[in-house]
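Re: the request from the purification team.
They wanted to know what the chain is likely to look like in 3D before they choose a buffer screen. I agreed to run a prediction and write the result into the notebook, where they can find it.
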Amino acid sequence: MPDKDLSDYFEEAAKLSGGKAQAVGNWIVNDLLRELGTAKISLAESKIRHAHIAALVKLIDAGILLNNAAKEVFIDMFASGEMPENHR
């Protein structure tokens, strides 16, 4: 995956998250890249868009989702392409 695509993805997600860049980065590096590798697909082929990551981070920040539940929601999101609020 080109670094520019990943960088742009991160920047957009960080903007939408309300300044939670570190949390966004952690989800991208630890979860999204792992799932992309496991599925053997590119970022462009993923159903997860930057808005999905930002929304997930906001739900965690608001205390609506705990980290363990968020991990499960992420896996569901990755498979379905639905926004995280649809998985609660």
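For the purification team: The two ends are 31 Å apart (CA to CA).
Please add any questions underneath this entry.
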